[in-house]
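Appendix B. Chain record.
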Amino acid sequence: MPAKIVVERVSHAFDRHQVLESVSFAVSPHELLCVVGPSGCGKTTLLRIMAGLLVPTSGAVFIDGQEVVGPSHKTAMVFQHFGLFPWKSVRANIAYGLKNRGRREPERVDGLIRTIGLEQAAHQYPRQLSGGMQQRVGLARALAVEPEVLLMDEPFGSLDAITREQLQDELLQIWERNQDISGVFITHDIDEAMILGDRVVVLLPGPGRVSQTIEVPFPRPRAAGGVRAHPAYPELRTSLWEALRADRQVPVHG
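Structure tokens predicted for this chain:
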């Protein structure tokens, strides 16, 4: 089956600072690929290029064989710092992408509000929500437009450990229910990459480059707790840790 997403020798520089160097990988249909790496290795820059928000200095990204030259209706993005409109309610934030595309689908918005468990907060504003609740809204807003490609930039990175594991489990459940989505999940956390990903791309800094791509052996459906209890978990974690330690310029959250 042809790849859904192809990143082909992507390099990027800001002025004279080289951020990415010849990054290549592919994402299969319905695969959730995690990209793990320390701060400063160009993870967010790479994701913005994949979303069509940045033009690479060289190389290209393809979705379904078509080069990405700008934002696409096939793609939705979940941001690290929620990215919600503070003046819009939960319901209006989730409906925003649909409205931008000329679609009024209140039943779909209602269904997503139920999925993220915020029925009682549908008319509240972001300032009234916890961080975890805000990120649930950001994820629902991305899913509302029924994207074929979901790009996630460390969406759980600022949350406490309990909320983070809850949202990891919710994302795993959503992934099982949405067979038509392929995704890339950016993280600096080894455990999160193993819990969520089908494969893990290890990105190292100086400039950002692919060190290894590692298969994740845990079957789906899966849950965060079940992954941690799997007998292959310690060995995989060690492999990822060693791959990241290949470059010790920047500390990694182990």
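Further analysis of this model is presented in Appendix C.
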